[in-house]
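Reminder to self: keep the SMILES exactly as supplied, no canonicalising. Ligand is NAP.
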Amino acid sequence: MQFPIGGKSPPALDTSVKGRSGVTPGPTVKSGRKKRRSYNPGKDPGFFFIESPHPVNEREKYLKLAIKLAKKGLGYTNPNPLVGAVIVKNGNIVGKGYHQGYGLPHAEINALRKAKERAKGATLYLNLEPCCFFGKTPPCTTSIISAGIKEVVTSLKDPNPKVSGRGISQLKKAGIRVEIGILKKEARKLNEAYLKYITTKKPFVTLKAAMSLDGKIATKTGESKWITSKVARNFSHQLRLLYDGILVGIGTVLKDNPYLNYTPTYRGFHSPRGSVSPGLRRGGKRFTKVIVDSSAKIPLDANLLKKSKTCLPDRQVILATTKMASIDKLKKLNEKGIEILILGENRKVDLLRLMEELGKRELANLLIEGGGEINEAALRLRIVDKVCFFVSPKIIGGRYAKTPVEGEGIEHLNEAILLKELTCEPIGEDFLVEGYVYRTD
Ligand SMILES: NC(=O)c1ccc[n+]([C@@H]2O[C@H](COP(=O)([O-])OP(=O)(O)OC[C@H]3O[C@@H](n4cnc5c(N)ncnc54)[C@H](OP(=O)(O)O)[C@@H]3O)[C@@H](O)[C@H]2O)c1
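Structure tokens returned for the bound complex:
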């Protein structure tokens, strides 16, 4: 169950390319509404129309299925997008597929392989514009054209500078009818990490914290195990599987000595959003662990520095530090296979540069798991895209008990960070409150 909470949300953040939604003259089907305040007679009425042989519901139905299929790749495709494809001929599905993992065939190719010769004259439904360049795999546009597909219905233009409308142009040049823009919002949400990463080369960042109802992430003595219930903890373990990197501050490392692992096959895992991908449940996902530690205080026997199956073999752990760290300690850490990034002349690690470095290492998304000081810095620096707060029905109290966002704080309410598209859902006996950071930039 998911329901919006709060009052009027700030205007939606447009992270997509500015692709128009299927504008073809000759109105038959009303399909959407442009954001306009009033109707001016004689001017653009604010509606756009799509001429199509198919009813809207049918297009939506198959695109919804494409999105559902795309989700099966969750956690595996980064830094590539999640894509699902459905091929329909004479009202029958003749091929389905999804992008199963980075470097593997794209969704369209998997669907075309299933459809075989039945693809000739069929309609292809896709949640993202097909690629048109040689990467790890050949261009999908070539395969679509040579298979004889007659129409492509897609939700979004791919903002990847190597594609960015060129895929659509190639299809149109080959005489394929293309319609774009249906289920755009859903398609954007599905690929929110990809859309940020491909346009900025920095990871999409989610900040996660578990807190009591009175907003404490630990007691006054720093005890934080466990604020939320087992169900919520397992849910947040599963959440890790969706990310390429997990980041913590040295304060949390010294206090909690975490492993930041996950439970790959937790029995009885219940996700109100449906199950995670079968591959993830089998425990195939690996992620990079990132520690922010200005003076390399981390003990050499910290749990996070131990070899783990849940990390990429070539990128087990990254320690982001500054010139304050002792060379001797950094050498010892390096001998343990830890990648060292010296980012900052000053007392604190330069988190903005850290995001650039993580982007260079193809981390398309990152989960920040606090504590309060790191959370505050990341929010203040506008690094965070999404907030994910687990709230438990407990009251901890205490002026010295840590809160999810520490730091100096702000003086005026108009400096507060605003969230939009807020949702709240029960997870066991706790609640998960999620929202996107509202930006004006
Ligand atoms: N309930 C939850 O969800 C949750 C999650 C995580 C942690 N916790 C709790 O939070 C507490 C720890 O939180 P914390 O705030 O003390 O520690 P923290 O946020 O984990 O780490 C903060 C430390 O990171 C270092 N740092 C380096 N560069 C930084 C930068 N640019 N900005 C900010 N910090 C930077 C600083 O230490 P140096 O200057 O020494 O490098 C700073 O003191 C623990 O009690 C833990 O149990 C709770």
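Points to follow up:
Confidence is low (pLDDT under 50) at residues 1-51, 265-283.
The longest strand covers residues 204-212.
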